[in-house]
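hi! just following up on the protien thing from before. the input was this:
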Amino acid sequence: HGELLLDGALHPHQAHAEIQDTAGTTDGANLAFTVDVTRPTLEIQRPQAGYLTETTVPVGLAYADNLGLDLKTLVVSVDGQDRTADFQKTATAASASLTLAPGGHTILASIRDLAGNASLPASREFTIDVAAPSLGFVKPDGARCIASQSVEAVLEYSDDQALDLASLSVTLDGQPLAMTEIGTARATAVA
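and the predicted 3d structure came back as:
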């Protein structure tokens, strides 16, 4: 029983041992192995982070290792649920088309190489937003004739996910109308 101490070189090694009994009969053993302390790499290539407008989401992973991957160790979860079985695997990539509900989602993935080294976990966050925002004038209240030179314009807006308030654009007779108060659900201007 002995321990092999290596110089840390990451290359193939050959070990040979022999033993002889008192009658002179010998036996030998050979062992070939490679030291591998390098983590595999794993990247989520699709979807991109941010907002998506479809509930069918193509997911693509790319992975690599200096000596070889153990594809059986690939684990992919979406929102904490194991979805590995949905993925088609090749030697360098995995892909799936997943149907997900609107809202925020997180993909987590990991893989191990043949030596058991684990990749750093890969993650991707994105939001599916399939509903258009809602926007409408509250004031003026729909009257076709207004008995005032000064008219207050009030808009209300909402969305099931999030609004980009910087994108709000209002015109009056084709000219930009500056909104004086812009809130998370309402904007006001006086024309």
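The two ends are 92 Å apart (CA to CA).
The first strand starts at residue 12 and ends at 20.
cheers
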